[in-house]
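Exam revision sheet. Question 4 asks you to relate a sequence to its structure. Input first:
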Amino acid sequence: MLQYLRAAVAQKVEQLTRNEQVLGSSPSSGSTTPAGGHPVGAGHAFCVILAPDTGITFGKRHLLKNWRFWLGVVISAGLLWWFFHDIDLAGLWQGFAQANYLVLVWWLVPLTASYLLRIWRWKLLLDSIHPVRFVNAASGTMIGFMANGLLPLRAGELIRPYVVARNSGYKYSSALATVIFVRILDGLVIMAIFIWMLFLVPFGGMVKTGLAIAVGAVYVTGCLALVALYYRRAPVAKMLSLPARLFGKKAREKVRTFFVNFGDGLRIFTHKGRLWAAVGLSIAVWGTAALSYVPVIQAMPFAHLTPWFAAPFTLAYVCLGVVFPSAPGFLGIFEQFGYLGLTTCSPAIIEVFGQAGKGMAGAFAILLHVTQVLPYIVVGLVFLVREGMSLGQLQRGRMKEVSGVNAVEALRDMDDEAGKARE
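Answer key, structure tokens:
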């Protein structure tokens, strides 16, 4: 498999190198030529993994064979069945009919602030390695979120650094490291919110303690691993590359080099001011995100029955659900986890309204899904047009989800080609 991958990559790189149109700004290609006039190596190399003639494309046929895609579809279908089975449909329509949509529109103010803070935070991390324009960070962020909403298998997490590497001459692996670091920061903040909310809602103390310890252990371990990868880069990279020796010395060396480059993307650890600023911005990101839930709650007829912490609690519940695989757009996740989060912290809704209250809570969950996902899809599509790209190119441009050395080799090849283009 590795030999086949190398041969396919070499063949496609040679083909793209010969074809100036592919490296230029041709609409049919996935690459552009920036202001400097040099072809963008990361986008160029990214095409290597998706070329139809390599046999490792991520097209429809391959998507239908991907078990993770089907697992997400099954989970979404199950959650939607559970959601509609549990709620009262008459109450659902009542909730939509009685909602105050003039109050609801205010959700855009904190939501916009949340995404501006997200972009600022990512730019702060990217700038610790190489300066990036705010608009390029914004483009990568919004196209990545849009891809998560429209493409399967959370494609946006890989597309986001791809867009920045494509525009800024970044190493893909370094940009990817900043995305993972951002996700770790997000996880820590959500973990703190979730643990805090656990102690505001009455249920068993042992359950609370167990959940708090489990959630905390996962993210603390992730943070320690990133710190170790940066400060002890060589030995940690060597250790992480040990499984690759099954594929030979050359494969192991590629894996080791990738993790060394990946660690370079964690240079934020040497900028203490930027690091603490990123932590502060992460708190602000999720604080404003929670505030964007408030107008949706206040627009509903049961708003007076909800506690002050209903918004952050529901946010924590939805974020917990997002951990699970799902169909594109987090279908079923927002509905069921939004419903469960709200009714868990606000049992008075069902106590006062009865079965109709379940339907009203269901209407809230659907409105929450639309208000949280639709804006970044629209803005992401605008940035996509600005980049001269299409959804088809993003779908083809997403790296194939392969295991072990193959994925790492693909990333390593991207970095090599980006370096050659910058030279």
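Marking note for examiners. Residues 1-59, 399-411, 417-423 have pLDDT under 50 and may be disordered.
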